[in-house]
Amino acid sequence: MPTETERCIESPIAVFQKCSRKEEKSYQLSKTESLSFMNIEMATTMNKQKDPGALDQMMKKLNLNRDWQLDFQEFLNLIDGLAIAWHEFFLWISQKRI
Questions:
Q1: pLDDT per residue over 8-57, tens digit each?
Q2: CA distances from residue 83 to 10, 21, 90 in whole angstroms, order as listed
Q3: 10 Cβ partners below 8 Å, 6+ apart?
Q4: Sign of CA dihedral 64, 67, 69, 73
Q5: CB 58 within 8 A of CB 78
Q6: How many domains does the chain have?
Q7: What is the pLDDT at residue 9?
Q8: Which domain holds residue 9?
Q9: Rounded-to-integer distance, Cα 35 and Cα 25, Å
Q10: SS3 (DSSP) at 97
């Protein structure tokens, strides 16, 4: 039985593989697949997003090799950035309650 940490490592791999198999380039997310990922897997976050150009801005920052596909490393950079932002938000909230 995997530990909680092992499940946390497995989860982004499973989501990436599920989302990246829809178009011809497996194991990379196209812009369309990235948008689908954000709207389905990150629905709560995207519902709060008011900027219609936010996905394009994220793709430009994340897509280091400029092929308009997100490989697994670039996808992890997205997950990493979101995790850091959420962690900082929760710290900020906890400090406000003190």
A1: 999 999 999 988 876 665 788 888 888 888 888 888 877 777 777 777 78
A2: 16, 24, 10
A3: 2
A4: negative
A5: yes
A6: 1
A7: 94
A8: 4-96
A9: 16
A10: coil
List, in order, residues 6 or more apart from 96 with CB less than 8 Å away: none
Q: Decide if 41 contacts 15 (C-beta within 8 A).
A: yes
CA distances from 56 to 9, 28, 32, 38, 77 (A): 27, 17, 11, 12, 15
HEC letters along 38-63: HHHHCHHHHHCCCCCCHHHHHHHHHC
In eight-state DSSP terms, residue 13 is H
Task: Please tell me whether residue 30 adopts helix, strand or coil conformation.
Answer: strand
Average pLDDT over residues 65-89: 89
CATH at 34: 1.10.238.10
Residue length of the chain? 98
Query: Residue 46 burial by CB count (10 A; 0-12/13-18/19+): exposed, middle or buried?
Result: middle
* pLDDT of res. 8: 93
